[in-house]
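Fold this sequence, please.
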Amino acid sequence: MFGKQVVLLMEDWYKQIKSSKIRSDILKQLYFRKSLLHTDLSLIYDRSIPVINKIINQLIKEGLVAEFGYAASSGGRRPQQYAVKADAMYTVAVAMDQFSTRIVMMDMHNNPVTKIETLELRLNDNPAALNLLVTAINNCIGQSGIPKEKILGMGIGMPGFVSVSEGVNYSYLDTGIQKLTDYIYTATSVPVYIANDSSLVALAEQKFGAAQSKHQAMVINLGWGIGLGMIVNGEIFRGNDGFAGEFSHIPLFEDGALCLCGKQGCLEAEASMLVVTKKAIEGIKQGKLTSLQSFVNEPLQVIANAIFEAIAIGDQYVVDLLSDAGYKIGKALAILIHIMNPKVIVLSGLGTRAGKIMLAPIQQALNKYCIPRLADKTELLISTLGFDAGLLGATALVMENLNDDILNKHFKQQPMDKMPTK
């Protein structure tokens, strides 16, 4: 009899522990989905309403969750919704490209609580880049006035061959034998997570943008390069070594321009925003009629912004440059559709400012190079997140890594005695 009581007590204890372990998962659900009912959470985790209520009440007591209004009712009392409190925790979001870096502190509703700082930071052949990055991050944290114990972590999206599991960028920001994540953590005292910039743009689109609820989606990051983030079976797909998605280095053009990777004919060397900008400069010098003439001696970033602004006034030279790039991107997308058969392709990132101009030539190329049965079943969308996708993906990366061990380092867990077990 005594032995049976011990077994029952152990089973009860195990169920309590198991139930308490979904604490961080519930927080992630509330963060990514903005608000949920306790009945929603009950279905997601296959736990009884009393168990979910117990955990929610604990999270409210800890200051992590709050009531968030009432949902519509088909009859009777309107059910209460819950959400993560905006000021419960904070994240540092860092979005990097080859030439500049943006840094911001975000709350749990993805609202910036600091000004988005833009640092002109060239990554290629720049030994000082890492120290400049760390200094800028520390400045952002310091100016926010937020205690570091309230900062859950830092997400950094960066170009290059980035190993998420190893915490290393094999292309930029060399730290010798030390992990890049460890180096930045030591310098900032904030947990660090890194990933390829295009995979984080895809993560942002999956969680907050055009790829929500899509199990098969390809997200094209139109920036200085042309990146690809892949959503396969509802998960970000990174490949065997974490380097999947090098879409920009598909060799499409025989004897084409020399790419930064050392190969000829890569898509990036023919159709990226860097190439469009350089072609614009060449055209201006050759006397092309364009509104960009006064920008010929400006930095690349300034000229790129001028290109986007020139679209609004119908600058034909700019339209021609972007249309040519769009057609080449469409040709590459035809290959991608044949291989992956995605439900949707999302154009995201900086280049979405030219999305409407590029959409028609992309579709024209798909009509020419893609099997109709496949092309007709693939939806082509322009992101509404645009340039913000990189920062949103960086903060989402921190939340993706949240677990109970990490949560308990920031917030002492209250005892969950007498918890219902089903």
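Confidence is low (pLDDT under 50) at residues 6-18, 413-422. Residues 90-200+391-405 form a domain with the Nucleotidyltransferase; domain 5 fold (CATH 3.30.420.40).
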